[in-house]
Amino acid sequence: MENVGQSIRKIDGMAIAMGKPVYTEDLAMPNALVVKILRSPHAFAKITSIDISNAESLEGVECILTFKDVPNARFTLAGQSYPEPSPYDRLILDQIVRYVGDEVAIIAAVDEKTALLAMKRIKVKYEVMEPVLDFEQAIGHPSVVHPEEDLSCNFEIGLQKENNITSSSHEEVGDVDEEFKRCAVVVEDVYYPQAQAHTMMETYRAFTYLDHAGRLIAVSSTQVPFHIKRQLARALQIPASKIRVIKPRIGGGFGGKQTGAGDVFAGLVTLKTGKPAMIIYDRKETFSATTSRHAMRLKVKLGADQEGFIRAIDMQVLSDTGAYGEHAPTVLGCVGHYTLPLYNKTRAVRFDGKAVYTNKMPAGAFRGYGATQGTFALESTVNMLAEQLKMDPTEIRLKNISKVGETFLTGQGVMLGSSTLDRCIAKGKELIGWEEKFPRREVGYNKVRAVGMAITMQGSGIANIGTASAEIRLNDDGNFTLLTGATDMGTGCDTILSQMAAEILEVPMEKIIVHAGDTDTSPYDPGSYASSTTYVAGGAVVKASEELKHKILAQSAAILGVAPQDVEFDGLAVRTISGDQEISFAKLAELTILGTGKLQLVGYATQGCEVSPPPYIAGFAEVEVDQETGKVDLIDYVAVIDCGTVINPNLARIQAEGGIAQGIGMALYEQVRYDEIGKMATNSFMQYKIPSRKDVGKVRIAFEESYEPTGPFGAKSIGEVVANTPPPAISHAIYNAVGVRENHLPITPEKVFLGMQKL
Amino acid sequence: MQIELTINDKVVKWEVANDEFLADTLRSHGFLSVKKACDTSCCGLCTVWMDGKSMLSCSVLSLRAHSKKITTIEGLPKEAEEFAQILSAEGAEQCGFCSPGFIMSVLAMKNELVNPTEEEIIHYLTGNLCRCTGYMGQLRAIKIYLGVA
Ligand code: FES
Ligand code: FES
C-alpha cells in the first residue's frame, strides 16, 4: 500500500513544530475580554452573601456574574454522546460550592490585571459545612455532597445522592463463591491507584464571540467539539443552532479535554456583553479546578485450579468521582469491561462497583478510562497467583488469555475477531531478556535488578453508541476535500484519515484537503476519545471514499460511453481497461461540477460498530532498586502491541511511547494530593512531578500486527491501551527485586524503603 | 518603561510594564511561537535565546531584555526548520506545543556541546518537558540531527 502502513509525516507537523500561530490563544481577537474565575477556598460551603459592588465599579471591568446570573438548568461537562450517562449535577455557578476551586464568580475585564484586581474586591460570605474528603467514608457520611432536588440522570445509573453514591454497577455470571471453593489456589488483594493529573502542556482555554448572524462561536481547545456545542446549549439555555464550536490545533488532551472547562464561562460573558471573551486556565487552575483520573480502591480475588487455569474472578471497586459526576458511571464500568475479557477460562465472574461523590476536584476521563486502574489491580493479582502456583507469569497468561474466535463469560457471546497477544508476550519476553533476567539478580553496590510484566486490553470505539460520519468530495479543480468531525489533538488523525482516503482513491495525499473539527461544517463525530478515531472515524472515511470511488467510476464510464466495469483508476484519472480512453479527475470535475453534468460527486458515510475490538499490549519492565534507600530506577521498558494493522508506524510508536511515559509517571512519580481541609497540595509542577527525560529510562516499542476484520484496513485502536501496563509491570518488577508489594500508587522510594523494613 | 532590544536581528523599542515578563511581551508583539505551560519555571516551553544563550522567557522581566539580543524560533527559520523536519519525520512533534521551546534548546545545545553523549543530551534538555511523546522520539531526532549513532 502506498499510504496506509507508511510513516507519513503529519500534515500539520511543520507548522506546530515551528511555532506557527495555530492554537486557540494565537487565534483569539486581541480585544477579547479577559475572563477570570473567583474560586471557593472551602471544600464544602454555602454562599450566604456575595457583594460585587466594589469590583463592578472598577474601570475596565465589563461584567461580574454570580450564581444569581446563570440559567437554572443542571448539566454535565462530560463530553459524551447524547443522552449522556453522566448525571446533570452542576450549574454554571451554584450557591453551594463543593470543592476548593469550585467556581464562585466570573469576572470579565479589559485586561488581566483589572480582572484580578476586581476579583480581590469581591466579598463573599460562606456558611462552611463539613466536607467529605475520604472517599472510603463517603457512603453514609453525614454530609451530602449533592442534596439538590433538581439533579437528574438520563439513565438509571444507580445514583443514591443521599448516600453520596453517584453510580453503581453490578455484573455477575456463574456462582463466584461456589467456584472459589472449588479452586486449588485463591489469592486476593486490595489496590489503590491514585488520582493522576493530565498535565497536557496547553492548559484549558477557549475564546468566544458573536458572529455576523449573532451566533455564539467558541474556539476551544477541546477533544469534543460537538459535545461542547450541546453542553453550551444546555448550560446557557440557548438553541444549539445558535452555537458553533471550532477546534484549532490543540496542545494535548489525554482525555482531560473530553470534559468541558472554561467554555461555559467565556460563552456566558459573550452572551451577556456581546463582546469577544477569552478564558485561559493557568497551570494552578488546570491542576486544581478541572479533572483528574479517578482514584480508586479495588479488591480483586482470583481462583485457579491445579493446572493454573483461572476459574473465578471477583472485582469490587470504589471510585472517587469528586464533587461532580463527570464520567463516573462509564469509567467505573470500563474497569471491568476492559480487564475481565482478558482471561476466558473462567467459570464465574463478578464485578461490583460504586462511584462516590466527595468534596474534591472532580475526576473525569483520562487515557485508559478505568482500564488503567483495573489493569493495575487485576494484573498485579495475576502475578501473585502465578507466584502461588509456581508458574512463570508469562506462562499463566499464555494459558488463560482469550484467543481469536473465542468468547468470554461477560461478553454476551461476542467473538474475538483478532488478537496476537500470545505473540506480543513471546516477543516481549525475548526483547527484555526474560529468560535470563526473571526474577532478579544482584548487580553489586547493594543494588538489585529485576523484571516484571503485565498485559492489557482496551476497546476501539464504543460498541453500539459511538458513530462517526465522514464526507469526501471531488472538487471543481480535481482535488478532494475530506470533511470529518474527528478531533486531531496532535495524535495525527487528520493525517491518518487522509492516508486512508488517499489509499482508497489511489491519489497522492497532497490531493486531499482535510477539514475537521468544526461543528458548522464537519459531519457529526463524537470527538477523539474512547480510542475511536482510527477505528470508527477511519471506518467512516473508508466507506465514504469507497462510495466516491464508485461514483467517479460510474460517472467516468458514462462520459466515456463504456460500462462501469470497463473502467479503472489510473493515477489522477480514470481509464478504460482496454487503455484506449481516459478522463482525468480535473476533466471529470469540470464536466460534472462546472458544466452540463450538474452533479458534484460526493461520498458520504456514517460508521458505527456493534463491536469494540480490543487492542492488546504485553508490557515488560526492568528496574534497578537500591536496597539501602528504596530508590527505583527504570532501566528498560518493552511494550509489544497488537493494534491490528498499523496505519502510520511512526505516529503509532509516538502514541505508545508517550502513553507509556504517562504510565511510568503513574507507577512511580505522580499523585494528586490534598491537605486536611481538602485543598489541593499539588497544584504546580514543583509539587506534582511528571516524568522528565531522565525518568523514563529506555522505552522500546514493537508491533505484532493482527488483522481486525471489522476495522479500516484491519486496524484497531492505540491511543489509550498504551497507558495501562506500566503500573502493574513496574510494581511486579519492584516486588521481584526487593519483595515489597506496594499497592498504593505511586511507588515512591519512601514506600519501598518502609516496605523493606517490614519484611 | 521603554526598552530597546534586538529581536531576531531587528532593533525595536517597546513599552513594557515594570512587572511584565518577557514571554508575555514577546507574545503581545506577535512572537506567538513562545508558549507558556507553567507558572513555576518548570516546563521549558517558553525557551528563547538571550545573547545567544537559551533562557526561560517566562522568568525574566522584560526590562532585563533592554539592550539584549533576543532570538525566537521565528528568527532562526533555516536552522530550526532543518531540525523540525527531522523531528516531524520521527512523528515526535505530537501536539507540538512544546516543540518551539524544545527546538530552541536543541539548537543552543548544538552550539554549546561538542559531540555530546546520550547522557549529556538528556541532561542538557531535562528542563524541556513534554507530556505527549515520552521523549524517545525526540532523542532519536536529535541523534539523527547531530549525526551520532
Ligand atoms: S512557562 Fe514554564 S518554564 Fe517558562
Ligand atoms: S508534543 Fe505535546 S507536549 Fe511535547
Task: Write a structural description.
The complex is a heterodimer of chains A (about 750) and B (about 150). By secondary structure, chain A is of the alpha+beta class. Chain A is about 25% helix and about 25% strand. Helices cover about 35% and strands about 15% of the residues of chain B. The termini of chain B are far apart. In chain B, strand 1 (about 1-5) and strand 2 (about 10-15) form a beta hairpin. Chain B has 5 helices and 5 strands. Chain B has about 150 residues and is of the alpha+beta class. Chain B is elongated and about 50 Å long. Chain B folds into 2 domains: about 1-70, Beta-grasp domain (Ubiquitin-like (UB roll)), CATH 3.10.20.30; about 75-145, [2Fe-2S]-binding domain (DNA polymerase, domain 1, Orthogonal Bundle), CATH 1.10.150. The chains are: A alpha+beta (about 750), B alpha+beta (about 150). Chains A and B meet through helix 1 and helix 17 of A and helix 2, helix 3 and helix 5 of B. One FE2/S2 (inorganic) cluster sits at the interface of chains B and A. Chain A: Pfam families: Ald_Xan_dh_C, MoCoBD_1, MoCoBD_2. Chain A: It comes from Desulfosporosinus nitroreducens. Chain A: Keywords: Molybdenum, Oxidoreductase. Chain A: InterPro entries: Ald_Oxase/Xan_DH_a/b, Ald_Oxase/Xan_DH_a/b_sf, Ald_Oxase/xanthine_DH-like, AldOxase/xan_DH_MoCoBD1, AldOxase/xan_DH_MoCoBD2, AldOxase/xan_DH_Mopterin-bd_sf. Chain A: This is Molybdopterin-dependent oxidoreductase.
Topology (elements, then pairings):
The complex is a heterodimer of chains A (759) and B (149).
Chain A: H1 13-17, H2 24-27, E1 33-39, E2 45-51, H3 53-56, E3 61-65, E4 96-97, E5 103-109, H4 112-120, E6 123-128, E7 165-173, H5 176-182, E8 185-191, E9 205-210, E10 216-220, H6 225-236, E11 243-246, H7 263-273, E12 277-280, H8 283-288, E13 295-304, E14 310-322, H9 328-337, E15 348-357, H10 371-389, H11 393-400, H12 421-432, H13 434-437, E16 440-444, E17 447-457, E18 467-474, E19 480-484, H14 493-505, E20 512-516, H15 533-560, E21 567-570, E22 573-576, E23 582-584, H16 585-594, E24 602-608, E25 616-626, E26 632-642, H17 649-668, E27 698-703, H18 726-738, H19 749-758
Parallel strand pairs in A: 1-12, 10-11, 14-15, 19-20, 26-27
Antiparallel strand pairs in A: 1-5, 2-4, 2-6, 3-5, 7-15, 8-13, 9-10, 9-12, 13-14, 16-17, 17-25, 18-19, 18-24, 21-22, 22-23, 25-26
Chain B: E1 2-7, E2 10-15, H1 22-28, E3 47-50, E4 53-56, E5 69-71, H2 77-89, H3 99-112, H4 118-124, H5 136-146
Parallel strand pairs in B: 1-5
Antiparallel strand pairs in B: 1-2, 3-4, 3-5
Helix pairs in contact in B: 2-3, 2-5
The complex binds FE2/S2 (inorganic) cluster (FES) (2 copies).
One FE2/S2 (inorganic) cluster (FES) sits between chains B (93-98, 130-133) and A (201, 252, 490).
